[in-house]
């Protein structure tokens, strides 16, 4: 009998989940609270209850070749860093191409997910949904939770004494939509994650003055990197990942800090943190240094207290007549619809094997998709997680015993805590290549590089030294896609096409295949290997 799967949410993760169910011959029913697909990327002028909300100008900070679904490249003429409306265009193309829409029940909220009475043997779930005030209950064989993790604002008002007497306006970044209404105001933005950076820059063009408060500073990286290539296409590579593994972390941090300081000295710009480069989720911002050097954004330390109209900072300085405050202080996540015996979240910490499977279930018939904060893009990660989960549901992949899964969860948490500064934003961090390889290994879809080097050496070099694009996880194993090799061979064309919009007569300059860095990498890796063999 065909197994049924309830998919909660039709954002990027939900769409990929539906497609993976279909690929595995499962029967998905997707429940989406709102009236459209796209989740967070579906822009609305007003925030909606129960769905993440973005501001009108959001441009993604992961580039198109790194964020696409692995068997559906983003059209070559789409920009590398897309506006949210363009991302929606891509999701619609994906949904249409794989005929996903008919599996989605819109304006339908999942109210509860509970184990069936015979769960230990059947593994089934009872799902209660609500549409237009009417409740409905159905039984499903499996569940894919794709409800996102940017829904509930973290508004830590208790940490800001005097906020109750402050006479200006304050809001969370979730409620910020556009600069309308901020003209000629003195605005304070609190928090220097990607929301805080983006909003401070945007407002600085029309506000009288913007102050950006950060309690620990940040290293700022640029979307546009060496030779104008998207940053993630240069950093998310197998050889870079290997270097990160074999070289001391202090050296890696030193190189990265040196590089970003060449663009602007973080000390002189008041941004220098005490933690190292790799100790924090990266803040990507192309304009912040320009706004600081032109005086329109002033960096401040943590807020000590609010007064009726003024704000006092921990260094004793005071800014008068602040009209508006935006708390860009991040998000909390939870699963209010899911039985507490299945998923418990405390301060953004949840026990999930590979961030997907609750380890204690008698039957592995529930998976959480997209609950990671990657250094890289979420979409291909969600897709790979869903590929694995659907194979687990079918019994084609067996998960380890509960004890081993719990051990793995604890190890990951310990590793994360030793690398990142303590913050509730650093509880689900993953590095793209490492994590994708880990999930792909369980699935059986990790590219076997040795085999590639033996059979197709030139291509293998591209896989090892080039961007680790999602297509790499469709080269072999279950879900293999015949277009994967061609997609990798043409990825540079799709990166260049949207920027090179003026045709030039002069022939392209020769770009040698192996550059100096790559040759050095080979030497370092060989030396590391030799060292391991000898010692
Ligand atoms: P969401 O997009 O949040 O979708 C979840 C869906 O589930 C929603 O449609 C919601 O309505 C539905 N839902 C929730 N609860 C229920 C329920 N009980 N019943 C029915 N439906 C429900 N990631 C990147 O990779 N690159 C980026 O550059 C990037 N930029 C970002 C910018 C901003 C401002 C923010 C806040 C996040 C950004 N992210 C980025 C992360 C973002 O989470 C992912 O891009 C992506 O949206 C995750 O998709 P998702 O489907 O998991 O979650
Ligand atoms: P975030 O990454 O969690 O950043 C929150 C910021 O608020 C951090 O600087 C944090 O500082 C600070 N903060 C939290 N609590 C605080 C407190 N009590 N007092 C002072 N400061 C506090 O949240 P976000 O910026 O909204 O980003 C959420 C997600 O969306 C991220 O994945 C991000 O990459 C993504 N995003 C992407 C884009 C884009 O693509 N253009 C734009 C916006 C957001 P600490 O570090 O000290 O905790």
TrEMBL record:
<dbReference type="GO" id="GO:0016174">
    <property type="term" value="F:NAD(P)H oxidase H2O2-forming activity"/>
</dbReference>
<dbReference type="InterPro" id="IPR036188">
    <property type="entry name" value="FAD/NAD-bd_sf"/>
</dbReference>
<dbReference type="InterPro" id="IPR050346">
    <property type="entry name" value="FMO-like"/>
</dbReference>
<feature type="transmembrane region" description="Helical">
    <location>
        <begin position="513"/>
        <end position="534"/>
    </location>
</feature>
<protein>
    <recommendedName>
        <fullName>Flavin-containing monooxygenase</fullName>
        <ecNumber>1.-.-.-</ecNumber>
    </recommendedName>
</protein>
<dbReference type="InterPro" id="IPR000960">
    <property type="entry name" value="Flavin_mOase"/>
</dbReference>
<keyword id="KW-0285">Flavoprotein</keyword>
<dbReference type="GO" id="GO:0050660">
    <property type="term" value="F:flavin adenine dinucleotide binding"/>
</dbReference>
<keyword id="KW-0488">Methylation</keyword>
<keyword id="KW-0472">Membrane</keyword>
<keyword id="KW-0443">Lipid metabolism</keyword>
<keyword id="KW-1133">Transmembrane helix</keyword>
<keyword id="KW-0812">Transmembrane</keyword>
<dbReference type="GO" id="GO:0050661">
    <property type="term" value="F:NADP binding"/>
</dbReference>
<comment type="similarity">
    <text>Belongs to the FMO family.</text>
</comment>
<keyword id="KW-0492">Microsome</keyword>
<comment type="function">
    <text>Acts as a Baeyer-Villiger monooxygenase on a broad range of substrates. Catalyzes the insertion of an oxygen atom into a carbon-carbon bond adjacent to a carbonyl, which converts ketones to esters. Active on diverse carbonyl compounds, whereas soft nucleophiles are mostly non- or poorly reactive. In contrast with other forms of FMO it is non- or poorly active on 'classical' substrates such as drugs, pesticides, and dietary components containing soft nucleophilic heteroatoms. Able to oxidize drug molecules bearing a carbonyl group on an aliphatic chain, such as nabumetone and pentoxifylline.</text>
</comment>
<dbReference type="GO" id="GO:0004499">
    <property type="term" value="F:N,N-dimethylaniline monooxygenase activity"/>
</dbReference>
<keyword id="KW-0503">Monooxygenase</keyword>
<keyword id="KW-0597">Phosphoprotein</keyword>
<dbReference type="InterPro" id="IPR002257">
    <property type="entry name" value="Flavin_mOase_5"/>
</dbReference>
<dbReference type="GO" id="GO:0005789">
    <property type="term" value="C:endoplasmic reticulum membrane"/>
</dbReference>
<keyword id="KW-0560">Oxidoreductase</keyword>
<dbReference type="GO" id="GO:0006629">
    <property type="term" value="P:lipid metabolic process"/>
</dbReference>
<dbReference type="InterPro" id="IPR020946">
    <property type="entry name" value="Flavin_mOase-like"/>
</dbReference>
<keyword id="KW-0256">Endoplasmic reticulum</keyword>
<keyword id="KW-0274">FAD</keyword>
<keyword id="KW-0521">NADP</keyword>
<dbReference type="Pfam" id="PF00743">
    <property type="entry name" value="FMO-like"/>
</dbReference>
């Amino acid at each position: 009998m065909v197994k049924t799967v309830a998919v909660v949410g039709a954002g990027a993760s939900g769409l990929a989940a539906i497609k993976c169910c279909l690929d595995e011959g499962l029967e998905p029913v997707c429940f989406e609270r709102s009236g459209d697909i796209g989740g967070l990327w579906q822009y609305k002028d007003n925030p909606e209850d129960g769905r993440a909300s973005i501001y009108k100008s959001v441009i993604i900070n992961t580039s198109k070749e790194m964020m696409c679904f692995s068997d559906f490249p983003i059209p070559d003429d789409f920009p590398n860093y897309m506006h949210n409306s363009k991302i929606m265009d891509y999701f619609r193309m994906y949904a249409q191409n794989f005929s996903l829409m008919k599996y989605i029940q819109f304006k339908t909220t999942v109210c509860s997910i509970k184990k069936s009475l015979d769960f230990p043997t059947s593994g089934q779930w009872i799902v209660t949904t609500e549409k237009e005030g009417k409740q409905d209950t159905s039984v499903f064989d499996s569940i894919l939770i794709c409800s996102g993790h940017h829904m509930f604002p973290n508004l830590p008002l208790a940490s800001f004494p005097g906020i109750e007497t402050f006479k200006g306006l304050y809001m969370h970044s979730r409620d910020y939509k556009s600069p309308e209404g901020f003209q000629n105001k003195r605005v304070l933005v609190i928090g220097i994650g990607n929301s805080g950076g983006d909003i401070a820059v945007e407002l600085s063009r029309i506000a009288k003055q913007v102050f950006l408060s950060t309690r620990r500073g940040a290293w700022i990286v640029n979307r546009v990197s060496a030779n104008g290539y998207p940053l993630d296409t240069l950093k998310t590579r197998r050889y870079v990942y290997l270097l990160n593994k074999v070289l001391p972390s202090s050296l890696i941090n030193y190189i990265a800090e040196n590089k970003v300081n060449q663009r602007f000295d973080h000390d002189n710009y008041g941004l220098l943190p005490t933690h190292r480069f790799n100790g924090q989720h990266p803040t990507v911002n192309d304009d912040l240094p320009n706004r600081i050097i032109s005086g329109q954004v002033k960096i401040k330390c943590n807020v000590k207290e609010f007064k009726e109209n003024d704000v006092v900072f921990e260094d004793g300085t005071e800014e008068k007549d602040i009209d508006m405050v935006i708390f860009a202080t991040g998000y909390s996540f939870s699963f209010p619809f899911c039985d507490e015996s299945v998923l418990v979240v405390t301060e953004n910490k949840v026990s999930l094997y590979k961030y997907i499977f609750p380890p204690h279930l008698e039957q592995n018939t529930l998976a959480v998709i997209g609950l990671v904060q990657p250094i890289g893009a979420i979409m291909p990660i969600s897709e790979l997680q869903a590929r694995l989960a659907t194979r687990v549901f079918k019994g084609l992949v067996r998960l380890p015993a509960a004890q081993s899964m719990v051990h793995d969860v604890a190890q990951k948490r310990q590793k994360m805590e030793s690398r990142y500064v303590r913050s509730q934003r650093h509880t689900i961090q993953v590095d793209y290549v490492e994590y994708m390889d880990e999930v792909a290994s369980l699935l059986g879809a990790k590219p076997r590089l040795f085999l590639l080097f033996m059979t197709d050496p030139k291509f293998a070099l591209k896989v090892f030294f080039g961007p680790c694009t999602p297509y790499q996880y469709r080269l072999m194993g279950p879900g293999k896609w015949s277009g994967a090799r061609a997609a990798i061979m043409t990825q540079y064309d799709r990166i260049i096409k949207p920027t090179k919009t003026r045709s030039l007569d002069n022939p392209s300059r020769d770009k040698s295949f192996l550059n100096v860095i790559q040759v050095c990498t080979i030497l370092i890796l060989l030396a590391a290997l030799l060292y391991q063999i000898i010692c």
